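User: Please write out a complete single-protein record containing the residue sequence and its fold in token form, without commentary.

AI:
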Amino acid sequence: MGGDEDVITLLDEDGVEHEFSVVDVLEVDQRRYAVLQPVVGGEESESAVIFRMEDDTLITIEDDAEFERVRQAFEALEDQPSEDQAGGAPDASTEGSSETTH
């Protein structure tokens, strides 16, 4: 990843601005979701948040089951080799890998 990631600014319920880096946009169960990473002090946070996209609005996911489906779909995408890695020799670093986050 380079320094050209999409960064958006969102207002919280108190009107305070927060910057987020757009990690990914994915579709799960015919709905679109945005995975965002907070930018704090110019650096990306280790955590991420997921919002449902409805038109031009980001909606907080309040249903635990819906959130879990999207989280699992995102993790499955992260576990797939990128196009840069595809087609080469098998990656020896996958030995002993598990479903936990890296």
Notes: The radius of gyration is 16 Å. Confidence is low (pLDDT under 50) at residues 88-102. The helical segments are 64-79. The CA atoms of residues 4 and 11 lie 22 Å apart.
